[in-house]
Amino acid sequence: xxxVPGSSERMLEKSRNxxxxxxxxxxxxxxxxxxxxxARTNIRRFLDQPRAxxxxxxxxxxxxxxxxxxxxxxxxxxxxPNLDTIVIPKANSAxxxxxxxxxxxxxxxxRQQMDSSGRSYARPVRLLALIESAKALSDLPAIxxxxxxxxxxxFGAEDFALDLxxxxxxxxxxxxxxxxxxxxxxxxxxxxxxxxxxxxxxKGNDAQERLEKECLGGKRMGFNGKQCIHPSQVxxxxxxxxxxxxxxxxxxxxxxxxxxxxxxxxxxxxxxxQMVDKPVIGKAKTIVSRAQACNISIEASRETWRHQxxx
Length: 311
Prior knowledge:
Layout: E1 2-5, H1 9-14, E2 20-26, H2 36-48, E3 55-61, H3 70-77, E4 85-88, H4 94-107, E5 126-131, H5 134-138, H6 140-144, E6 150-155, H7 157-164, H8 176-188, E7 193-196, H9 205-220, E8 225-226, H10 234-241, H11 245-264, E9 269-271, E10 274-276, H12 278-293, H13 299-304
Parallel strand pairs: 1-2, 2-3, 3-4, 4-5, 5-6, 6-7, 7-8
Antiparallel strand pairs: 9-10
Helix pairs in contact: 3-4, 9-10, 11-12
């Protein structure tokens, strides 16, 4: 998720040429109070134009509910035809999610209409909640189930550190509990997006190495995305969160061997001396699906390992 300030028309236009999963056009922290109205106009005009080919998801980060500015933000952008997602900052409780959901339903009743099974008739505006305080962390279950449009959680580390008077360290051990709680909550409530903290360094080789380390650490903790504050961070982040070739090869070997094991009626078997059972098979299938979602072909791998047998 790349953050782009709504007050800069130049940066808005530059975002059209990027290949990025999600761009969050910002009305909050990167926009001064005196520029809020201008930023709303800029973003609405931008989202009225044809969708950028390289951007999969157009999001707008509104101001927090407690700021008193959120309603004006929503009124300005909700009717934009290419709006996909609203990012709710400082979502301290379920009531913040309820507020945005009610406004969206009132403004876009047809787009947000759902059938008796909870499925949307159209493409609804989705919601991402920024978790930035101890109160939010303690209320994660209620936040996750506060709206049928909830799509995921984002960890706002800087405000979280401020709220708890934490001192940020390179190893980020002080953030471990919060990050683990957020990724676990997303899985528990079946929210597809689990987006990790910002890497504040972006200039120079050291910054790129730090970014990659943070991405891989977040991936190990269950996150499937990361906030970016500069276009130079996008490529490293995408590569880190995409399955590596080694991961793809391992997963494809498991999938191919599983197909053969199923035919012979074998429920558990081994690969490279390690037991393979249902959870391992599920992980392999997830990696294959993720590779395909990242437009990474697995055909070469399948060809290479076509003779793989369950051991």
